[in-house]
Amino acid sequence: IGQSRRRICGERLALYQVAKGLDKSDDAAKFLGRSRNWRHPWNPDASPLGFKGFVVPRSKDGGKFVDQDPLSCGGCYWGDDFYEALPWEYSFNPHHDMSTLIHGMGNDDKFIDRLDTTFEFNNNPHGHSKCNYTIFGPSNEVSFTTPYLYHFVGLQDLSVKRSRYTAKTYYRPSRFSLPGNSDSGAMQT
């Protein structure tokens, strides 16, 4: 569900844009629809920490939502539904469909509150002490863009504040300077 669906939906949007540019309207419509498949695992009733609406797994037949806490990745490994990050983190990732995402989270104010909660200390009991038990995972690609999401609700100043804090707090130009492993260079770039 996590990384692969997120990546594939973004790729489908790119294909939509190419098809549209080539006046291939049938292909454009097909790929635009597929880019919205991130919505399929969106459970409007999943509700940790007083917020509603998160991506969570569905049963194998695609029917019912699996009962999974969005603050737990269920193992966080290759065979698990979510790899490397929490459903909470993945829920911020359909960057190509932000207006739908913000609406699914309630409204601009609830979106802002959820972003703020993501960065608050001690909200993730399964988190790392190095990151002050935040939900935000500065050591994972899934969270790399989260500090910038305030832009989508007109709060560029908060994007700057969060991104500067992240860079100054979790990264340094020295040995042992990353909040996690280098992830084949993703952390250094």
Question: How does this structure look, described?
Answer:
The protein is built from six helices and two strands. It has a two-stranded antiparallel ribbon. Helix content is 37%, strand content 2%. The mean pLDDT is 86. Helix 1 (2-21) packs antiparallel against helix 2. The chain has helices at residues 2-21, 25-35, 87-90, 98-104, 108-119, 156-170; strands spanning 42-43, 54-55. The protein has 189 residues and is an all-alpha fold. The longest helix has 20 residues, at 2-21.
Structure characteristics:
189 residues; mainly alpha; 6 helices
Backbone structural class: mainly alpha
Cα shape: globular
CA-CA gap between termini: 25 Å
Spatial strand arrangement across the major sheet: 1-2
pLDDT averaged residue by residue:
86
Query: What is the helix tally?
Result: 6
What does the radius of gyration come to? 17 Å
Please give the largest β-sheet: 2 strands, antiparallel
Order of helices and strands: HHEEHHHH
Which ranges are low-confidence, i.e. pLDDT below 50, for 5 or more consecutive residues? none
Number of beta strands: 2
Helix content: 25-40%
As a percent range, the share of strand residues is under 5%
